[in-house]
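USER: If only I could read backbone structure tokens as easily as an amino acid sequence. It would mean a lot if you studied the pair and described how this chain folds. Here is the record:
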Amino acid sequence: MNPDDYCQQKAASSGSSFYYSFLFLPIERRRAITALYAFCREVDDVVDECNDPQIAATKLAWWRMEVARLYEGKAGHPVTQALQGVLPSFNLPQEQLLEIIDGMEMDLTQTRYLDFKGLSLYCYRVASVVGLLAAEIFGYEDRKTQKYAHDLGMAFQLTNIIRDVGEDARRGRIYLPIDELQQFDVKAADILNARYSDNFRRLMEFQIERAERYYEQAFAQLPAGDRRAQRPGLVMAAIYRALLEEIHRDGCQVLTQRTSLTPLRKLWLAVKTWVKEG
């Protein structure tokens, strides 16, 4: 299996909505974004699948060295070999790939966030940085598109956090800021033990409203001249906003279920958005 095939398999097998957002890209851009996504999956899997934090930290340290080798032209892993093949065509700064690893490392040492400011740093590292790299791959003329990419990444990560509250709690993690739990009188124990309440529903509605504000803020900052090039992000946004609507419609039952859209609905939203923005 060659590096590109490895990345393609990694992307397709994940079932992620991201896969649908770059189905219609020209082959070179699709190769690049698929390799970037596969890199994100690899380093994220280190944290999610490794029960020993020390072993996970060692693996992430290996990935840091592998990123260094990538920029020296000596990539050894199929994912970094695929990235090495697209580096001449796209501006993918080494420090941004390392920042993604920084975000993953936060999961090894931090399971709570005091406030949204602290959570924002995490979201920036694991999602906004990915958005900035993706914007480079998709192409843009106006630097304002970087602000759009930053805020869209924030919106995506906030959506992930909302969707995964119960799943994260079963791993002992709560990404909802402590001061907001206090504001809505929701105890951490209620989340860890999957206890629903009206206060919890109101807390989640507050989270959904903030995510929606980030989507709107991102769209407002996307220059008209770059809208066509940035269609993959708009496809992803359509899928993720539909997911948020489903969560809200279900009464924010995120402690005991993981809301998702069917592959057919994701594909329909992708085609609809791609044609609309074309």
Summary: The two ends are 34 Å apart (CA to CA). Residues 32 and 86 are 6 Å apart (CA to CA). The chain has a mean pLDDT of 93. The chain is about 70% helix and 0% strand.
